[in-house]
Amino acid sequence: xxxxxxxxxxxxxxxxxxxxxxxxxxxxxxxxxxxxxxxxxxxxxxxxxxxxxxxxxxxxxxxxxxxxxxxxxxxxxxxxxxxxxxxxxxxxxxxxxxxxxxxxxxxxxxxxxxxxxxxxxxxxxxxxxxxxxxxxxxxxxxxxxxxxxxxxxxxxxxxxxxxxxxxxxxxxxxxxxxxxxxxxxxxxxxxxxxxxxxxxxxxxxxxxxxxxxxxxxxxxxxxxxxxxxxxxxxxxxxxxxxxxxxxxxxxxxxxxxxxxxxxxxxxxxxxxxxxxxxxxxxxxxxxxxxxxxxxxxxxxxxxxxxxxxxxxxxxxxxxxxxxxxxxxxxxxxxxxxxxxxxxxxxxxxxxxxxxxxxxxxxxxxxxxxxxxxxxxxxxxxxxxxxxxxxxxxxxxxxxxxxxxxxxxxxxxxxxxxxxxxxxxxxxxxxxxxxxxxxxxxxxxxxxxxxxxxxxxxxxxxxxxxxxxxxxxxxxxxxxxxxxxxxxxxxxxxxxxxxxxxxxxxxxxxxxxxxxxxxxxxxxxxxxxxxxxxxxxxxxxxxxxxxxxxx
Length: 550
Hints:
This protein folds into 2 domains: 37-321, MetI-like (MetI-like fold, Orthogonal Bundle); 341-550, MetI-like fold. Helices cover 73% and strands 2% of the residues. The chain has helices at residues 9-36, 47-54, 56-89, 95-107, 110-121, 126-135, 145-168, 173-181, 186-215, 218-223, 230-239, 246-273, 291-318, 335-344, 348-376, 380-390, 397-408, 419-442, 447-455, 460-471, 473-488, 494-497, 505-515, 518-542; strands spanning 321-324, 327-332. A two-stranded antiparallel sheet has the order 1-2. Helix 13 (291-318) crosses helix 24 and helix 15 (348-376) runs antiparallel to helix 16. The longest helix is centred in the N-terminal third of the chain and has 34 residues, at 56-89.
């Protein structure tokens, strides 16, 4: 009888990771589905799905979310593609500054932008009052659909810029020279050469923007004022004081998963239609534009980045103003910071770093292991792991939070209200970023290097961690910095899962905004922005290519 070979260490790691996904992703999704079909009498029922699709008040929120997401995606694509085109094809002053500011815009929490826009252009906003009293100018209402689109677009168009910048650097300059030689003007080249060559990346960027806009609930919650979106409906039905219904929230979450999965599949199908590989032997060369064109290009790029940065600059300025009882007064003071530090140093700041660093360490470890399994040991089990790792990419954060609470609120493993469930949720949500960047860099490292180390006596595991992982450092860091910044600015999942003991900086900002403590909220927001800025600058200092890969 042929004796079975014992499992090697990588097979064991595969099954352990698959088991973790089964426990913390598949089981919660199943529990969510099970709760969605339990009626008020405790029996199987589709009453909540029927209620959603038969009442305009409910299904209208889905149309509202689509309306916002389509508008944000369209605006972000236009702004981001033009920005990337000007940035990469023309000589400009201050490119490094523009690139850094664009990344900072994309990394800031969107609800800080919403809060800041309300402070600037809300009904009692500073600019609204100033222009009304001085010039009699009345600005359009910042609340509702318009305000939501402005706030989210300011945060997401830089992502399009970063994606398209990567695509443009893969275009061979000879293609542009050939088009120019055939008489194509710069305007025509943009539409007949640049856009078609960038189409796969444009579709990928559009998906990311659409998903982020669709899943954002903090911005509509703060600035919506009657314009309710689908994520806000889920949140209100789960934690609402007067209309709380966990089973209805579960049904809404299932609908959200189906909708986002359908969008993802449509995008994947569209991407395959435009799929092709491209390698630039000669990268695109920048050229000096005419004087008037140069002025317009500089004005456009600095204007869009400046407007996107305005909320962050404004909230930082607000943090130094005198504030009493939530009302800003003439003069400057550090009182808001004194009060903020008194509140956050005991709990929020330590929680942010403790929960964030624990999540990041596990994200990096799991991402490295999964990247190796996907690239070096491709099989049925590891392909399943690869697919499962991307599932949270299309699930709104509030849905992940609700699923985890339903699963771990009772039974043999009670985690609700603990830091552990916060860490688990953050890992599930942010792991895809580091996995993708780790996979991309590992695919560029020849297997022969690892095999050479094994032939010299290293075990497979030791060869990977001592030889291959150091060579993956830049890709790992790139994904890790994105994961870290999104971890410390996470709100949609955390607001479902947190307790008084696990409040983070993001939650502290939100609770102070809700309570009307504008001075303290501005101070904490500025501290959080300082942490994200420092994280980005540290990455750029120690990274080889100085840029984040998406």
